[in-house]
């Protein structure tokens, strides 16, 4: 590396360590920020010589990144931004901290994908899904798909691993030279009702979809989920036992296996490593308190709330909603979520915007009780499982109550 990059790396690491020591999070944002101030090409310099996979999409990227890093671990040390700092500052910091690893798996915020592809020259880019998120600031979904499509067109050598079930993702990736399709399902259809190519309605049946006005249609997937396993491109079925719940995580596992295969890792080697992932930065973590088994589920936009309802057991459920900066200030997305699956369960609500949630639940005819603190929620629920579904900062608040469980 150039001398300037070496100095920047060292300063970046020190700043991150000082920030951690001061109890200000994991320090990856500040560390990366300082490093990039000293050497604006630092990310490019740190990426050079590594085989890199990028993982992007609206939902599931932190978990899929964790799975992919675990799978690539078969080959050797892997650098990764495991704390979800998914912008270039976080990537810079993760690579600086890891030292010289042959591999890196980086979770990338959808908006930054083009820039991070430019700077890291990845071998593989995984595209998970696109749906509405943070209404007050995120790009409209079709616009994001266009940004991805343009970014991939500028890098024809990149191998793309993409979700065949999401028309927006397919449209973004369909013209790339090297693409492998996986099928991870798509529960949320409201952001891909019309074709991004021609604007005609998209027709869906039995997991298949096609545009009614142009040739865009679901490509044949080489990696698919079947029962509790994954079928690889040769047609072999692999049992995938995970600690993480839900069909959505089986899809994330299939994606990780597909990405790892692009690096030469066989599913038979990778699958046992996926089972080792018990929680991801507190998500899916289970904590025992006062006879309650509390499980934490993060849900931050309509598509991920649908997935959370699918994952949650029929048990007392605490919902918490905030609308602080990282959450987005606009909570009107609550009206995009169908809360009726919660009918008949004991529902507790809390968070800064509990009243927004209360109105929404009333409209959906779901009975609930408002609690002011997490402790009150625990006391109000009977012994046994308590499911907690919370959006971003609400989740972090509850995680803090549980001693920052990982
Ligand atoms: Zn069309």
From TrEMBL:
Pfam families attached to this UniProt entry: Mur_ligase_M, MurT_C
GO MF assignments: acid-amino acid ligase activity; ATP binding; carbon-nitrogen ligase activity on lipid II; zinc ion binding
Residues noted as binding Zn(2+) in the record, renumbered to the chain: 195, 198, 211, 214
Single Gene Ontology BP annotation: peptidoglycan biosynthetic process
Residues at the catalytic site: 330
Superkingdom of the source species: Bacteria
UniProt domain Mur ligase central: residue ranges: 55-260
Catalytic activity: beta-D-GlcNAc-(1->4)-Mur2Ac(oyl-L-Ala-gamma-D-Glu-L-Lys-D-Ala-D-Ala)-di-trans,octa-cis-undecaprenyl diphosphate + ATP = beta-D-GlcNAc-(1->4)-Mur2Ac(oyl-L-Ala-gamma-D-O-P-Glu-L-Lys-D-Ala-D-Ala)-di-trans,octa-cis-undecaprenyl diphosphate + ADP; beta-D-GlcNAc-(1->4)-Mur2Ac(oyl-L-Ala-gamma-D-Glu-L-Lys-D-Ala-D-Ala)-di-trans,octa-cis-undecaprenyl diphosphate + L-glutamine + ATP + H2O = beta-D-GlcNAc-(1->4)-Mur2Ac(oyl-L-Ala-D-isoglutaminyl-L-Lys-D-Ala-D-Ala)-di-trans,octa-cis-undecaprenyl diphosphate + L-glutamate + ADP + phosphate + H(+); beta-D-GlcNAc-(1->4)-Mur2Ac(oyl-L-Ala-gamma-D-O-P-Glu-L-Lys-D-Ala-D-Ala)-di-trans,octa-cis-undecaprenyl diphosphate + NH4(+) = beta-D-GlcNAc-(1->4)-Mur2Ac(oyl-L-Ala-D-isoglutaminyl-L-Lys-D-Ala-D-Ala)-di-trans,octa-cis-undecaprenyl diphosphate + phosphate + H(+)
Record's signal peptide: none
Enzyme kind, highest EC tier: ligase
Enzyme Commission numbers on file: 6.3.5.13
Domain Lipid II isoglutaminyl synthase (glutamine-hydrolyzing) subunit MurT C-terminal as annotated: residue spans: 298-394
Gene3D superfamilies: Mur-like, catalytic domain (3.40.1190.10)
InterPro entries the record matches: Lipid_II_synth_MurT, Mur-like_cat_sf, Mur_ligase_cen, MurT_C
Pathway participation: Cell wall biogenesis; peptidoglycan biosynthesis
Keywords, sorted A to Z: ATP-binding, Cell shape, Cell wall biogenesis/degradation, Ligase, Metal-binding, Nucleotide-binding, Peptidoglycan synthesis, Zinc
Protein role: The lipid II isoglutaminyl synthase complex catalyzes the formation of alpha-D-isoglutamine in the cell wall lipid II stem peptide. The MurT subunit catalyzes the ATP-dependent amidation of D-glutamate residue of lipid II, converting it to an isoglutamine residue.
Record's subunit section: Forms a heterodimer with GatD.
Protein family membership: Belongs to the MurCDEF family. MurT subfamily.
Protein name (Swiss-Prot/TrEMBL): Lipid II isoglutaminyl synthase (glutamine-hydrolyzing) subunit MurT
């Amino acid at each position: 590396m150039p001398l300037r990059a070496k100095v920047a790396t060292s300063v970046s690491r020190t700043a991150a360590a000082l920030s951690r020591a001061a109890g200000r999070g994991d320090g990856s944002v500040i560390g990366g920020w300082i490093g990039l101030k000293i050497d604006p090409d630092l990310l490019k310099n740190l990426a050079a010589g590594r085989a890199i996979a990028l993982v992007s999409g609206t939902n599931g990227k932190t978990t899929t990144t964790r799975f992919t890093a675990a799978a690539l671990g078969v080959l050797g040390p892997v650098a990764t931004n495991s704390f979800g700092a998914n912008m270039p500052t976080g990537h810079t910091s993760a690579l600086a901290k890891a030292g010289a690893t042959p591999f890196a798996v980086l979770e990338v915020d959808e908006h930054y994908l083009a820039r991070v592809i430019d700077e890291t020259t990845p071998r593989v880019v995984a595209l998970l899904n696109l749906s509405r998120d943070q209404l007050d600031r995120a790009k409209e979904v079709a616009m994001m798909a266009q940004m991805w499509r343009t970014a991939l067109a500028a890098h024809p050598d990149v191998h793309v691993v993409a979700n065949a079930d999401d028309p927006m993702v397919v449209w973004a990736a369909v013209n790339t030279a090297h693409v492998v399709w996986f099928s991870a399902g798509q529960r949320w259809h409201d952001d891909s009702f019309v074709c991004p190519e021609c604007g005609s309605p998209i027709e869906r049946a039995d997991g298949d979809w096609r545009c009614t006005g142009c040739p865009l249609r679901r490509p044949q997937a080489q990696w698919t989920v079947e029962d509790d396993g994954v079928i690889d491109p040769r047609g072999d079925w692999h049992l995938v036992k995970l600690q993480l719940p839900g069909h959505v995580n089986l899809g994330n596992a299939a994606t990780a296996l597909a990405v790892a295969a692009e690096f030469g890792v066989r599913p038979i080697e990778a699958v046992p490593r996926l089972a080792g992932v018990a929680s991801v930065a507190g998500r899916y973590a289970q904590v025992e308190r006062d006879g309650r088994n509390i499980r934490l589920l993060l849900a931050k936009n309509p598509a991920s709330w649908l997935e959370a309802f699918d994952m949650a057991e029929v048990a007392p459920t605490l919902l918490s909603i905030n609308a602080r900066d990282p959450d987005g200030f606009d909570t009107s997305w609550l009206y995009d979520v169908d809360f009726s699956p919660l009918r008949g369960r004991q529902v507790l609500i809390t968070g800064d915007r509990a009243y927004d949630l209360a109105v929404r639940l009333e409209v959906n005819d779901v009975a609930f009780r408002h609690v002011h603190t997490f402790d009150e929620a625990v006391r109000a629920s009977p012994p046994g499982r308590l499911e907690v579904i919370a959006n971003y900062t609400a989740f972090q608040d509850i995680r803090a109550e549980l001693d920052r469980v990982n």
